Amino acid sequence: MFASSAASSSWIAGFTVCFSLVATIGAQNLYVLRQAVQGEHVRACVAWCVASDALLVGVGVAGMAQLLGSSPALAQWLQWGGALFLLAYGLFAWHRALFVPPVVPAAAGGERVARGLLGVVSGLAVITLFNPHVYLDTVVLIGSIGARQEGWLKAVFVLGAASASLAWFLVLAFAGRRLRGVFANPRAWQVMDGLTGVLMFALAWWVWQGA
C-alpha cells in the first residue's frame, strides 16, 4: 500500500512539473503545431518530442542536474546560448513572414509540397537538442526535482514526465488539425510567423534577463 502511494506521488510529481514547463509557447511547440497544420509526419514529431523529453529528464535525474547545478558559469552560458537561439529562431520566423511567399500545404487546402520524414524530424531534433535553454528546463530543473525521489521512484518520476509530454503534444497535434481551415488562407501563415517572431523575441529577452 505504501509503495503504491509513493509511486503515485512520484508519477504525479513528474507529470505536474513537466507539464507546467512543456505547456508553454516555445520553438519546439510551434514547430510541432506547424507540422500538425501541414499534416506532415505528426506522429513522428510527437514520438520524438516525448522520447527526447524522457531522455533528457532521465539524464537529469541520473545526476547531470547536480553536475550542472554545481557549475554556475556553465548554467549562465546555457542561458545566454538559449537567448541567442530564441533570437535567431524569431528572426527566421520574421524572415518567412516578410520575405518568403507562404505556401499553403495540401492538408490545409493548398498544393502538396511534401517534406520527407528525415527532413522533418531532423529539423525538430535541431530545435530540441541545439537549444541550450532546453537543458536548463528538462535536465537541470525537472531533473533536480526527480533526483530527490528514492531509488526506483526516480523511474516512476521520469515516466510521469514522459506522460505529461505525451499528453501535451497530442493536444498540440489535435489543435493543429482543427486549425487547418484557418491556415487555408496564406495570410494566416504570415500572421503566425509574425507572432512567432514576437514570442521568440520576448522569450529571448526573458532568458537573457534571467542570466
TrEMBL record:
Q: Which UniProt keywords apply?
A: Cell membrane, Membrane, Transmembrane, Transmembrane helix
Recorded GO CC terms: plasma membrane
Membrane-crossing residues?
12-33, 45-65, 77-95, 116-135, 155-176, 188-208
Question: Which Pfam families would you find in this protein's record?
Answer: LysE
The source's domain of life comes to Bacteria
**An example molecular function term from Gene Ontology annotations:** amino acid transmembrane transporter activity
Q: Does the keyword Lipoprotein apply?
A: no
Membrane topology listed for this record: Multi-pass membrane protein
Question: What is the annotated localization of this protein?
Answer: Cell membrane
Keyword Transmembrane helix appears in the UniProt entry: yes
* UniProt cross-references to PANTHER family, sorted A to Z: ARGININE EXPORTER PROTEIN ARGO (PTHR30086), ARGININE EXPORTER PROTEIN ARGO-RELATED (PTHR30086:SF20)
Which protein are we looking at? L-lysine exporter family protein LysE/ArgO
